[in-house]
Amino acid sequence: MTPLIDPFARAISYLRVSVTDRCDFRCTYCMSEHMTFLPKADLLSLEELDRLCSTFVRMGVQKLRITGGEPLVRKGILTFFEAMSRHLQSGDLKELTLTTNGSQLAKFAQPLADLGLRRINVSLDTLAPAKFAEITRWGRLPQVLDGIQAAKAAGLRVKINAVALKGFNEDELFPLIDWCAREDHDLTFIEVMPMGEDMTANRLDQYWPLKDLRARLADRFTLTDLTERTGGPARYVRIEETGQKVGFITPLTHNFCESCNRVRLTCTGELYMCLGQEDMADLRAPLRANPDDAALELAIRAAIARKPKGHDFDYSRQAVKGQMTRHMSHTGG
Ligand code: SAM
Ligand code: SF4
Q1: Which protein residues are within 6 Å of ligand 2, measured from CB?
Q2: pLDDT band at residue 318, thresholds of 50, 70 and 90?
Q3: Would you kindly state where each structural domain of the chain is located, as residue ranges?
Q4: What is the mean pLDDT of residues 29-46?
Q5: 3-class SS of residue 223
Q6: What percent of the chain clears pLDDT 70, i.e. is strictly above it?
Q7: How far is the CA of 243 from the centre of ligand 2 (A)?
Q8: Are the C-beta atoms of 222 and 241 separated by less than 8 Å?
C-alpha cells in the first residue's frame, strides 16, 4: 500500500492515540477541577480503536503511542494492547508505547512488558508529595513512585516527562536531575502550552522558557547537544558529568514542524493533523458506516492531504496567540 505522505513530503509514521478523555488526576494545567467527560456512547469501542489503528499500521505507521486522558483507566485496556501487540509480532509496528501518569502502573507494568512494550513515558512534575497533590489535585505521589518502580522491575525503560512551571518546580530542577540519574530514567522537560479554554489565564505566569531552564543547567553541568531527532518537538543534550540524556520539548519557542511525522487520533475518532490547529477529520463516520476499510482509508488519505505546514503557538509579545481551546486530555498530549 502507498505510504502516507503529506503535502510537504513528510512521511506519517507515528500515530498517537488517546483512548479515553477520562483521568484519575486533575492536573491544573490540563483539566479543570470539574470536568465534563464525553458520554460513553461517543467513544470508540476497543474493537473500533483496533480497526482504526490497524488501518494506520497498514498505511505505514510504525510507532503507536497510547495516551489519553489516562490510558490505563480505560476499562479493558489490556485487551487493546494485546490486539496491538500482534503488529509488533508481525514486524509491521516497530514500537508500541504509552504515556501515563503512572498511577496504575503497579498493576499494569508487567503485563505491558509481557506484551512487548519496551519504553514508557511517565509524567511527573515534582518529587515533593504536597506539591504533587497540589498540581495533580487528585494524585498521590507514593502511588506513582510505586508504579515507576514496578515498571523498572518489569524491565521497562522509563522516561520522565516534567512540565516546567515557573514558581512551581523551578527549585526542583537539580533534585529531579539527580533522582533520574540515580534511578536511571531519561528525563524530558516540556514547556507549558496554552491549551483549554478556562485554564489559559495563568499560563503566561507559569511559562518557564526551557532556554532559561537549560541555561541554569549549564551553570552546573557541561551540556553537549545531541543530533538525535525523533521527528517531534524534542531536542536532547547529554550531561557530561553524569552521562544522562535530557530532553527539551519546546513547542512554543522552537519550530519543529518541518520534520513532523505524527498525527493524533482522539477517543471519538477525530484525527488531528496538527496539535496546534483546529482542523480535524472525523474517522468515526466512515469507520461505522462501512464494514470494510476502503472508505476509512480514503478518509485517512484525504486528511493527511490537509496536514498543515505548522502551528501558530506564540507566547511572544506577552499575549497567547494561536491559543487552542482543546484540552490536552482530548488530543492526548
Ligand atoms: N495522563 C497521561 C499523562 O499525564 O502522562 C497522558 C495524557 S497527558 C495529556 C500527556 C502529557 O501532556 C503529560 O505529560 C502532561 O504533563 C502534558 N500536558 C498536559 N497539559 C499540558 C499543557 N497545558 N502544557 C504542556 N503539557 C501538558
Ligand atoms: Fe490526567 Fe495526564 Fe491531564 Fe494530568 S496531564 S490531568 S494525568 S490526562
Answers
A1: 23, 25-27, 30-31, 68-70, 101, 123, 328-329
A2: very low
A3: 14-331
A4: 93
A5: strand
A6: 88
A7: 30
A8: yes
CB 162 within 8 A of CB 176: yes
Residue type, 20: T
Residue 80 Cα to ligand 2 middle (Å)? 20
CA-based angle 52:58:60, to the nearest 5?
A: 110
| Residue of 17, 26, 99, 100 to mutate, ligand 1, most atoms within 8 A of C-beta | 99
Nearest-10 crossing angle of helices 141-153, 105-114: 20
pTM above 0.85, yes or no: yes
Q: What separation in Å is there between the alpha carbon of 127 and the centre of ligand 2? A: 17
In the predicted structure, residue 333 carries a pLDDT above the cut 70? no
Q: What is the pLDDT of residues 165-224, one digit of tens each?
A: 999 999 999 999 999 999 999 999 999 886 654 455 566 678 899 999 999 999 999 999
Place of cell 509514521: 13
Query: Which top CATH class is 14-331?
Result: alpha beta
Task: Report whether 1 contacts 294 (CB < 8 A).
Answer: no
Q: Ligand 1 centroid vs 25 CA: distance in angstroms? A: 11
Nearest-CA residue for ligand 1 atom 17 is 333
pLDDT at 205: 79
Which amino acid is it at 82?
Answer: E
Quote the radius of gyration of the chain (alpha carbons, Å).
Answer: 19
